[in-house]
Amino acid sequence: MPLPDKLTASYFRRYGFAPATVIDVGVMAGTPFLYEAFPDAKFVLIDPLEESREAVARNWGGRIAYDFHLCAVGAATGQMELHVPAAGKARTSFGQRKTASDLRTSTRVVDIRPLDEISAAYAGSIGLKIDTEGHELAVLAGAVETLRRAEFVIAETSIKRRFTGGYRFSELVAFMAEHGFEVYAFLSGLTRSPRMADLLFVPWDSTRFDMGSGKG
Length: 216
What we know:
7-stranded mixed beta sheet; 7 helices; 22% helix
């Protein structure tokens, strides 16, 4: 029996989340299932590429209420060198890939801000999605206060060694556990030998983890 496509608005609505603010870190051209799942939310879109800001304006301008922050996020304020592929900018990363050595890239120095600094300007509960090509743990390290208000976190999480010096899968899961979250579902990556997966984290004190809760 084929697995359902969980990265769709219709599927994701089944979880019953209702965040006031949805933060999308690593946007590129946008995250349709997330925007369509919460049409009444305020969206905070964060990406260090000007190309992303332009793509979002083309694709989503007038369709969702959003603020765009042209920066990267990490553990502390500063700057870092970003590797930007000539084609396929969704594969932009801070780390050196262990594969695709033929990928032609240029570099850009971009500003880094802690997510807590950005999210403080937005009230209410938060839904957080992170897709930063191996930089996810650093994003979370600067988001401790943000996590206190998060109903859910979706993180593209490396399982194999995708980047030189990258985090271990267990490190990210342990960080989330330390801050009160557990893996609730695999939204993608359920293969025989996954290299990464989109994980849905939910606060452990949620009744969603009770067997028979009927939520998700």
